[in-house]
Amino acid sequence: MMSTRVHPAAGTKAAAAHRLQGLQRASATSLYEQIADRLRQHVSSGEVGGQLPTEEALMRMFDVSRSTVRKAVQRLVDEAVLMRRQGKGTFVSRPLPKIVHSIDRLAPFMETFRQVGEDIHTELIEFAWIENPDLPIELDGWERPVLGYQRLYISRGVPHAITRIRVPAKIGRRMTREEVDSAPIYDILQKKLQVKLARAEFLVGCRQPSPQISEALEISQSSFLLVLDRITRDSAGEAIETTTHFLRPDVYQLSVALEDLSRAK
After folding, report:
1. Which CATH superfamily is domain 99-255 in?
2. Which tens digit of pLDDT belongs to each residue from 4-38?
3. For residue 206, which of 39, 75, 224, 252 is within the disulfide window of CB 3.0 to 4.6 Å?
């Protein structure tokens, strides 16, 4: 029996090329957006490499027209994921940060970046009293309006997360914009307001971004975000804040550490 040995590097490239294919022709999402999403994911994983394949190669790979390929590539150029060099081709323009966020402890979101040594820049992009907030059903009893604000997180010039925080009126009235701009919500609750945090409840899912979030995170509206919804409770069991984390899945992974339950008494 004849056997053929494939070089590991060649196999890796072939596998990456195969995963880039398989567009959903009947999908409501346009072909160029699907191609842009696939290329974005594989650029972030390093499988595409430093230089993008030629237009002709991408046309063959996806079985689409040149105009479709050009629109997909232009989307990533506009997002600064790719950059064109006159006469040389299209290249990956910047490395994405890789961040593992632990959800098995009560700690500020900023603690994640301290642990991984990631340089982080934040911007407060919303601060307002909201009469009709989008709250989890169990928080419908909160007095209106509630205080809400959003913070954008940027590393290496890449916007990769938005946190949307809501707090009840009785707590919000004791917080200022300056404090919110300079400190995580857990620090404000514990250090300034002397609230004892007891537990947090998490729901993890995925969601397509709103136009505002897609623009802020420089991603397509057809892509999906990793979404982490959290409700934090005090020692009396009262909900004192709720935060929704909108996380780029090409940057983030979530981690949970479990104890050996067989040893539990």
Report:
1. Chorismate lyase-like (3.40.1410.10)
2. 333 344 444 444 444 455 788 888 889 999 999 88
3. 224
- Contacts (Cβ under 8 Å, ≥6 apart) of 194: none
Is the Cβ–Cβ distance between 43 and 65 less than 8 Å?
no
What pTM was estimated for this model as a whole?
0.70
Edge-to-edge strand order for the sheet containing 121-130? 121-130, 146-155, 158-167, 239-247, 225-234, 197-207
Q: In this predicted structure, what is the pLDDT of residue 264? A: 55
Distance between CA atoms of residues 152 and 176, nearest Å? 18
What separation, in Å, do the N-terminal and C-terminal C-alpha atoms of the chain show?
58
SS3 of residue 118 by DSSP: coil
Are 61 and 17 contacting, i.e. CB atoms less than 8 angstroms apart? yes
**Class of the 8-92 domain?**
mainly alpha
Contact 147, 167 (CB under 8 A): yes
Give the mean pLDDT of 177-206.
96
Domain boundaries, the chain: 8-92, 99-255
- Helix H or strand E encompassing 203: strand 197-207
